[in-house]
Amino acid sequence: MSGMRETTYRECLREAIREALQRDPRVFLMGEDVGHYGGCYAVSKGLLAEFGEERIRDTPLSEAGFTGAGIGAAIAGMRPIVEIMTVNFSFLALDQIVNNAATLLHMSGGAFNVPLVIRMATGAGRQLAAQHSHSMEGWYAHIPGLKVLTPATLEDARGMLWTALEDPDPVLIFEHVLLYNRSGTLSPEAGPVEIVKAAVRREGSDVTLLAYGGSLFKALDAAEELAMAAISAEVVDLRVLRPLDTATIAASVAKTRRAVVVDEGWRSGGISAEISTRLMEEVFWELDAPIERVCGVEVPVPYPAHLEQASLPQVPEIVAAAKRTLGR
Amino acid sequence: MSGMRETTYRECLREAIREALQRDPRVFLMGEDVGHYGGCYAVSKGLLAEFGEERIRDTPLSEAGFTGAGIGAAIAGMRPIVEIMTVNFSFLALDQIVNNAATLLHMSGGAFNVPLVIRMATGAGRQLAAQHSHSMEGWYAHIPGLKVLTPATLEDARGMLWTALEDPDPVLIFEHVLLYNRSGTLSPEAGPVEIVKAAVRREGSDVTLLAYGGSLFKALDAAEELAMAAISAEVVDLRVLRPLDTATIAASVAKTRRAVVVDEGWRSGGISAEISTRLMEEVFWELDAPIERVCGVEVPVPYPAHLEQASLPQVPEIVAAAKRTLGR
Amino acid sequence: MSERPKAEETTLEAGEDFTASRPHLSRAHLLDLLHQMLRIRRFEDRCAELYTYEKIRGFLHLYDGEEAVAAGAMRALGPDDWVVATYREHGHALARGVPMPEIMAEMFGKAEGSSRGRGGSMHIFDRAHNFLGGNAIVGGGLPLAVGIGLAKRMRGEPGLAACFFGEGAAAEGTFHESLNLAALWKLPVLFVCENNQYAMGTALRYSESETAIAKKAESYRVPAAAVDGMDVVAVEAAARSAAHAIRAGGGPQFLEAATYRFRAHSMFDAQLYRDKAEVEQWRAKDPIARLRGWLEESGALHAQDLEEIDSRIEAEVAEAVAFAEAGTWEPVEDLTRFVHSAAARRR
Amino acid sequence: MSERPKAEETTLEAGEDFTASRPHLSRAHLLDLLHQMLRIRRFEDRCAELYTYEKIRGFLHLYDGEEAVAAGAMRALGPDDWVVATYREHGHALARGVPMPEIMAEMFGKAEGSSRGRGGSMHIFDRAHNFLGGNAIVGGGLPLAVGIGLAKRMRGEPGLAACFFGEGAAAEGTFHESLNLAALWKLPVLFVCENNQYAMGTALRYSESETAIAKKAESYRVPAAAVDGMDVVAVEAAARSAAHAIRAGGGPQFLEAATYRFRAHSMFDAQLYRDKAEVEQWRAKDPIARLRGWLEESGALHAQDLEEIDSRIEAEVAEAVAFAEAGTWEPVEDLTRFVHSAAARRR
Ligand SMILES: Cc1ncc(C[n+]2csc(CCOP(=O)(O)OP(=O)(O)O)c2C)c(N)n1
Ligand SMILES: Cc1ncc(C[n+]2csc(CCOP(=O)(O)OP(=O)(O)O)c2C)c(N)n1
Ligand SMILES: [Mg+2]
Ligand SMILES: [Mg+2]
Q1: CATH number of the domain to which D108 belongs
Q2: What is the pLDDT of residues B223-273, one digit of tens each?
Q3: Measured between alpha carbons, how far apart are the two ends of chain D, in Å?
Q4: In whole angstroms, what is the distance from residue C172 CA to residue B158 CA?
Q5: Count of domains in chain C?
Q6: Rounded to a whole number, what is the distance in Å from the CA of A36 to chain B's nearest CA?
Q7: Residue A194 lies in a domain
């Protein structure tokens, strides 16, 4: 096996798309500015030249229309990857996503499945304000019939897409905007990964930090800080928000007896609430303290950096919450 | 004060709309089939004749368009009541509701508030299947900038609208389809009610049942059954899903030390999770048992009665859950 | 129907070629159209009755009066084509060939139904006939049809997607987005607007500033035709000509069929929004009576033909009801089957 | 600009009546238009610079090249009228009269900004000028404009809602729904489509099957005009004529202005989708150079006029930057203020 190579999250996504296009003639990428512009976040840069206009398909501004077209095409034998630039715009396509993509298999009694992948950018941190910055992946995780993936690592950016494309049902992939530029090393053999389980990214014994997507790295930084205070934090990367891997999560918390959920989404009714609740349901008698949540503040994301940052989970808050669970 | 009179939930809603139209010339009702048809669920029957086409305004099938128009009209000095027939159709207007109605006040730094009321039917039980039957009010309760009301009683059906119209910000009112025909008695003096607090509908000491909307009556029935088993259940009607009245809820559970949340919405990521989590956060040390949830099963609502009913919370399950909290 | 040749004058046999750009007006073919429309009418009459017996529940939207549209248009479609319809889709499903017993069982909510009973009247699906529902979100099916057209084009497959929707749907944003996409990408999609003058209780003049729906297609450069939707042969002719152009690679086509529903929007409709005289005027154009009248006049229809048709239909409907009655309820333990394919396929 | 009278020939004074159906082509008025366009250009040049210094962050969409549209159209609006714009709205805000210092402070994210810094470049709002943003959802503003028109009509108030949007927005469903509603209800709404040929990197031919946007208005029966958006007087004339018709109670009007953005879509755009030659062709039509050239040719603009305009603008921009620099950061404790009006109004 050759050595590791330097790459970025963005490049991993691009490689995954390229590989899928090469592997399966039914795969195509469709969305606003994926072609001539090169992708709003430059993920698909260069792919138009390589694969042509049919398979790297620029769409008009019609989120409902092209998402619905993706559903129809999936049903009729293609394997579309639909890109929606930013999660806030996906609301324009929500009817198609919930009332059709998530529902058709059931509504048709199993006759029509929808093997569709929808990718979108999510999250704050680039000062894009209140119509471009939200974290709605946890919200989508409420919908039966959907699978919700949140790749945080390079391996997952590289590997989740193909597995998602092989899924017979609709899968949403949320890419945190702050991760695109993130670099690191990856094995040249990196390929498809499973999309079922959460992953323990750091082992620990005193408290479990549960995070995903952009917040994972804040949780890891917090664990580092906690270590300096002689607190051993385990960090679990949720990876998949629907269906939640309750077993892995509960096993970790059963061991540490304390947990902090970190979620950039708004607190009330966020995925953090579901995780807290499941933990209470599964390991109530093992808990030594109430589960803490460090979440996005319930405000549309403000433009100025100081307010935007104040609205997001930050390492010191995670550290403080973890300490609270230990009575410190 | 004269005696009570017989009326229905539907009539209460209609009276509330009529009163608002009479009281404030800025109020108007707008939506599909509110006029000539008389309202999909007959709520606005007769109002067209009384108030005319301008104020009882039939719209084309354009949920995004007319909801957005309601927002614009509210900003420019009107007090629109927008009716969306069924919560599933509101997804077509979600961009307007979340990216505009809920966000404009903040995005404009307080310059433009949106005094808009949106009413919609919610819930299952009429065999309308997977595109007409969901309970998404808990989902909407995740969005900062919105208020979410779920009138269950005749008093609330009669009284919440006017208070909502006086609110300077957007308010969503969810009417459970099975309540429209519900009849009961109402004081002739019934009028506006506050839209801030949860209400204890039945006092008890062993366990708290938390419910709202169509499920409230199932919780009350369950309390009745529990009483026969010598279990004293307190029943709290949430009334308002955003902002949640945590104080009232927590006070009840701090007293009973056990709770069951009943929610017709899907379990994962539902409002039930938020309530459970808040209780853990607020009264963890008072809890004698993990909080139980009785929720909608995570499936698009099926058409046949036996499956539809199986997908919804039912009295025996509530009773069983309450007993579990007591170790019985 | 004056300009149409008399049935006797057509010499062609009934053996149909769906790709032909014009209908074969053989006697057999016309009798078949009559049969198809009557089949839909009688089936739905029975449904309405069964609704009062609470065998069928939920919303039930009858196609009564509009049969010529589905019966005519479906003649232009072959096995590779797809159909996307609405909640008012019994007629489309029947005309497309979805077996009547399965449709009826679906209405009953039985496991033997075309959607295993999960969908009911508004959600009839059938993979064997490329029948993609049964969509109860007004305008929700149009993007799906675009996607099917896109798949066909990209896969180099023959066939087209036919999408039926009401004139009320023309106001939805998805109408706009879908027509643009189909035209921009020159996809094989046949848009069929069933203009029955009302969207629930909202008359067309309350929903559209431009009430000539076919005109709207122009602003997407989609060729459009308006046709008398109470004349089954006219519908078939228009659909054939449109489908022919699509199959020749010309991109989407649009058809507006003027029609009327004789009954209420659904079973919960007091019809306050239209007066009886209007309904009577339209009833006088009943597509079934019209074709029958013309066949009789021209001597092509004998009393015994009609009797035969009637008895075949009666038997078919009876069989469908019996099948539905005999159907089984899906076990409650299977409630969440069909949320994901893995579970759906497990047995 | 050949058919336009020379400035000297116009005898009318600059004192403007926004309700007039035609522009007053006085020298003062034309100088004013030039001033307005230059003001926008220079303001944005400065913004681009400040972006490189990271004083302005997030997305910044310049109006560079399109100034004639806002500058011209805004002349047809009075104080009772409302404006709904997009994320590319600096030009609209300036031309509408939103004070430059507040706009600049908003770009900096300062509490003194027009939206208290909450919105930034994409979300400039000003109640005093009925300026309803600043909307970063493409097509998201159109229904709002319809609603304002509805409120005006129902309240019997004078005025109209002017809604600016790009040609890319014309593909969105909200475009369709909004035009239909405005026309159906005969509302006072002026739709102004700024057709700058691209939606981000998507050329019009990739987004619309019918590339003549104004034609689309016909299918809603909305009167439409296409105008040279690089000619400020032509835009003003078209806007005045449209606004006049609206004020006369004729319902909505549609204007398509052909224009071009000289720079990138936003500050993160490598412009792979168009070639330099095309940009140069359009630059040759620069609305500012064009008006200036014509004024100079006709002897109406003297070197000292231009110097005066330049120095006024320089001072104004400098003042705006100083104001923004001196502005304060909203305290973090106020983070959730403005989620609800109660808290927003508390101080
Ligand atoms: C998005 C959406 N809005 C509203 C409804 C409720 N609804 C069902 S049918 C209907 C009328 C549709 O009219 P049209 O498209 O003309 O079809 P028709 O019923 O006349 O065949 C309405 C408003 C719905 N099902 N979906
Ligand atoms: C609903 C939505 N989809 C996508 C985007 C991303 N986006 C921002 S501007 C833009 C192009 C819009 O083009 P156009 O309407 O022509 O306006 P222009 O930017 O050219 O002025 C896109 C795709 C968005 N902001 N909103
Ligand atoms: Mg109709
Ligand atoms: Mg543009």
Answers
A1: 3.40.50.970
A2: 999 999 999 999 999 999 999 999 999 999 999 999 999 999 999 999 999
A3: 53
A4: 32
A5: 1
A6: 27
A7: no
Can you give the pLDDT at residue C5?
A: 34
| Mean pLDDT value across residues D246-272 | 94
How far apart, in whole angstroms, are the C-alpha atoms of residue D336 and residue A300? 9
Question: Distance between alpha carbon D305 and the CA centroid of its chain, in Å?
Answer: 25
- Give the residues across from A234 on adjacent strands: A208
Please list the helix, strand and coil fractions of chain C in percent, rounded to the nearest 5, in that order: 50, 10, 40
B112, closest residue in chain D (CA to CA): D127
The one-letter amino acid code at A146 reads L
> Are residue A153 and residue A48 in the same domain, yes or no?
yes
Annotated catalytic residue, options A11, A15, A32, A63: A63
Instruction: Flag whether pLDDT at B219 surpasses 80.
Output: yes
The whole-angstrom separation of Cα A253 and Cα A209 is 9
Please judge whether A109 and C116 are an interchain contact, meaning their C-beta atoms are less than 8 angstroms apart: yes
pLDDT tens by residue, C57-109 = 999 999 999 999 999 999 999 999 999 999 999 999 999 999 999 999 999 99
Judge contact between B85 and B30, C-beta under 8 A.
Answer: no
Q: Which carries the bigger pLDDT value, residue D267 or residue B89?
A: B89
CA distance C71 to A93: 33
Q: How far is CA D17 from each of CA A16, B22, B187, D79, rounded to the nearest angstrom?
A: 61, 39, 58, 11
Write out the E strands in chain A.
5-8, 27-31, 56-58, 79-86, 117-122, 147-149, 171-176, 183-186, 199-202, 207-211, 233-237, 240-242, 259-266, 292-296
Widest Cα–Cα separation across chain D: 60
For residue B122, the cross-strand partners are B176
The distance of Cα A145 from the centroid of its chain, to the nearest Å, equals 17
Q: Which domain holds residue B180?
A: 5-186
What range does the domain containing D106 cover? 27-346
Give the pair of three-digit tokens for residue A246.
Answer: 């309750």
Q: Which of A133, A163, A186 is the last residue of a domain?
A: A186
> B100 with B178, same domain?
yes
A3 — pLDDT class (breaks 50, 70, 90): confident
Q: Identify the contact set of chain A against chain C, taking CB-CB distances under 8 A.
A: 26, 28, 54, 59-60, 62, 64-78, 80, 95-96, 99-100, 104-113, 144-145, 168-169
C146 CA: distance to closest CA in chain A (Å): 5
Distance from CA of A232 to the nearest CA of D (A): 32
Q: Do B91 and A95 touch (CB under 8 A)?
A: yes
Share of chain A above pLDDT 90, in %: 99
Residue B110, helix vs strand vs coil: coil
Q: What whole-number percentage of chain A has pLDDT above 70?
A: 99
Question: Does the pTM exceed 0.90?
Answer: yes
Complex ipTM > 0.90: yes
Residue A166 designated active-site: no
A268: alpha, beta or left, given left = phi > 0 and alpha = psi -120 to 50? beta
- Helices in C53-141 by DSSP H: which ranges? 67-73, 90-96, 100-108
Strands B147-149 and B117-122 come out as: unpaired
CB-based contact D91:D67 (threshold 8 Å): yes
Contact C117 B37 (CB under 8 A): no
- Check pLDDT > 50 for residue D1: no
Nearest ligand (C-alpha, residue D164) = 2
> Rounded distance, CA C69 to CA C230, Å?
7
If DSSP codes are grouped into helix, strand and coil, which group holds residue A12?
helix
| pLDDT value of residue C305 | 94
Give the residue carrying structure tokens 């609330």. Answer: B156
- Tokens, residue B6: 């017989």
Side-chain-side CA neighbours of residue A309 (13 Å) = 9
Compute the average pLDDT of residues B147-173.
Answer: 98
B210 and B152 in a common domain: no
Single out the catalytic residue among B11, B32, B83, B132.
B132
Co-location of B275 and B298 in the same domain: yes
- The per-residue pLDDT for D37 is 98
Is residue C9 domain-resident?
A: no
Cα(C50) to centroid of ligand 2, in Å? Answer: 52
The answer to whether A36 is a known catalytic residue is no
